């Protein structure tokens, strides 16, 4: 189930930037708006840039990059590193005890979120065994999404005909 951001959530994000001493310029606001409107899409900086450029053509890639890095430093966005070296970003959700988890297709790079904290028992065991307090974790499963599997089955059928 995708999280829906309310106007209250948007105010919290913009206020957090302001409180940390950063002006909310029209360019930054446009970038924040794109990220909020793209919840669940796990965009690269370049993809964010492409989307924001259609609204604010004067924005440069460096501005988008700096704003995303600032938002990451402030804990407003979470970075998702994939095996291909691509960094993707998504809004950090205050309502989550831990970062949600991801299914990553190795064919098309589609990222699907899944909720459910399957690692709680493992965290407890780590805490007991190693006297270590786990604050967060990230779990990624790599495989082939249904769309790519169907496409591959179709290709195999054509080869075998």
Q: For the largest sheet, list the strands in their spatial order.
A: 4-3-5
Helix content: 40-55%
Query: What's the β-strand tally?
Result: 5
What is the beta-strand fraction? 5-15%
N- to C-terminal distance: 41 Å
Q: How is the biggest beta sheet arranged? A: 3 strands, mixed
Q: Which structural class best describes the helix and strand composition?
A: alpha+beta
Mean pLDDT: 83
Number of helices: 6
The rough form would be described as: flat
* Contiguous runs where pLDDT drops below 50 for at least 5 residues: none
Protein architecture, described:
This protein starts with 6 loop residues before the first helix and ends with a helix. A hairpin with a 5-residue loop joins strand 3 and strand 4 (111-114). With 161 residues, it is α+β, with helices and mostly antiparallel strands. The strands form two sheets. The chain has a three-stranded mixed β-sheet, with no helix packed on it. A two-stranded antiparallel sheet has the order 1-2. It is 47% helix and 14% strand.
Write the layout of secondary structure elements.
Blueprint: H1 7-19, H2 26-37, H3 45-55, H4 61-73, E1 77-81, E2 87-91, E3 101-105, E4 111-114, H5 120-130, E5 140-143, H6 146-160
Parallel strand pairs: 3-5
Antiparallel strand pairs: 1-2, 3-4
Helix pairs in contact: 2-3, 3-4
């Amino acid at each position: 189930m995708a999280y829906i951001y309310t106007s209250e959530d948007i105010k919290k994000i913009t206020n957090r930037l302001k409180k940390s001493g950063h002006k909310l310029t029209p360019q930054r606001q446009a970038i924040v708006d794109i990220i909020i409107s793209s919840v669940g899409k796990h965009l690269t900086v370049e993809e964010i840039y492409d989307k924001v450029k259609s609204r604010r053509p004067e924005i440069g890639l460096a501005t988008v990059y700096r704003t995303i890095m600032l938002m990451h430093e402030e804990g407003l966005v979470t970075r998702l590193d994939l095996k291909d070296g691509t960094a993707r970003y998504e809004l950090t959700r205050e309502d989550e005890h831990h970062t949600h988890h991801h299914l990553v297709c190795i064919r098309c790079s589609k990222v699907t979120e899944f909720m459910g904290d399957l690692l709680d028992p493992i965290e407890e065991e780590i805490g007991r065994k190693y006297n270590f307090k786990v604050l967060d974790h990230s779990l990624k499963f790599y495989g082939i999404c249904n769309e790519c599997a169907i496409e591959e089955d179709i290709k195999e059928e054509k080869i075998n005909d």
